[in-house]
Prior knowledge:
The protein is α+β, with helices and mostly antiparallel strands. Helices cover about 65% and strands about 10% of the residues. The radius of gyration is 27 Å and the shape is globular.
Amino acid sequence: MKLALASGFTLGLLASFLFAVLGGLAFFIGAANFYVVLAAVILINFLMWLVSPKISDFTYSWFYDMRWIDIEELREISPESAEVIERVTDEYDYSTPKLGIIHDSNPQAFTYGSGRWNSRIMVTEGLFEYLDDKEASSVYAHELGHITNRDFIIMTVANTIVQLLYLIAIRLYRAALRSDDGRQGMALGGFAVISFVFYYLGRYLVYYLSRVREYYADKFAGKHTHPDYLSSALIKISYGVMASPDNEDLMKATESMGVMNIEQAEEKGALYHNMSGLESWEPLAKAFLFDIKNPWASLLELKSTHPLTGKRVKALSGDAENPMFDFEELKKKFEVDTARLYKNFFRDLAVLAVPTALIFAVPAAYLYGVATNSIPANHGAALGVWIAVLGIGRIGKNVYQYPLNGEFEQTTVMELLSDIYASPVKGSRAMLDGKIIGRGRAGYMFGKDLMFKDETGIMHMRYQSIIPVIGNFLFGWRKAEKFVDSQVNIKGWFKRGTMPWMEMRQLNDQNSWPHLYPLITGGIIATVGLIITLATIL
């Protein structure tokens, strides 16, 4: 019932956006045939919804080495998965979905189709490499949840409405530019702006709807297998994404409909690495508090098709009698300073907003001063001051993001990933000892970024040459591979958003300069502004 209400509310709100624009426009221009155009777009989307499964079949067969299997072959690979498919389809009275396996080591699962009647469930070989039978069955149950809840239809309608809003905004904008009637041009431009605003809001509503439906697919899987099976599956899939030797093209191509978002997978995978050698899941559970408590996590989640992993595991744990993670005990054990979290969050936002705010604030202050005769009119000087302030703002933002004062503190990957107060804006100074195990992006021979491992976990390391683009390319081509399989000492700034990473300052004796380029460009901009100001005053 709650899922139906959430879907109905979201679709209703999107539809109201669309018809508010269309109704007002039709009334203004008196063009009944506009609805004919609308009907044509809807018809095209309807036909694409019907034939898209066939197109996807072709794509996965030819480009991703997919092959079809029947339920009996799946039973040989994963008896529990075959059993849950038969049980669910029998209970909800629809035929067994077409089953496919893709030759890829990245663990992934996704479903597509037009409805229950022609649904497909695709998994990679990597899913069975990293998950046990019960965990694999929970992933199949999750995908069956999408099919049973008819998510294909709901998401197709939602995306079609958003697509129409964008199409209308573009058409109206072009019509406004071509209009010879000033009043009509302004009206069309106004409708274009409204339609684009609704389109922008609609995108986030679709993300929200997708996350809601992921929660309900999780709940469905927990009901038909066990909540803990999917919790551990999500964590192990994360690790598999990090550890897989295959590239991530398939993961990126299917992440909107896959069981997990790739960036979230990289973060939780780093946490899971080598967890089997520890006595408890406590460090991983503590890291989940970032997803639940840190306001940056909630903000970054807004543009994600999947809920944050910590929130998914928490929801699943709430459905289990004796869950693998007890979040109530966890919150008692690791007290979170909420005031500190929000103080850091709003300070980060303020620093990010300064450059944009200055773009408008400086001209506005100048125009106000001229209008009130409090300052003399000098457009050249005003332009120079504006440019100089932008450069200074860029420098200030960079100094905040990469603190230069203090020592790089010795730590471990697990300690960094367990930091609930971490930020994607302001880095914390850290030093790590361990080994480079490969490129940041597997199979990319010119990649400048690296994957680091210590005794507690693995993490993505970002390199920045003092010469942008060319220097990065040369490092990736000629030097990066030399560090692979070698022991290293890394100093840098740790940051964390939907995934964690380290902006390297030093890799052994190799310098990295993520903080230098903004300082240089900010200094150049400020100097140019100062020169223009002095030239117009003197």
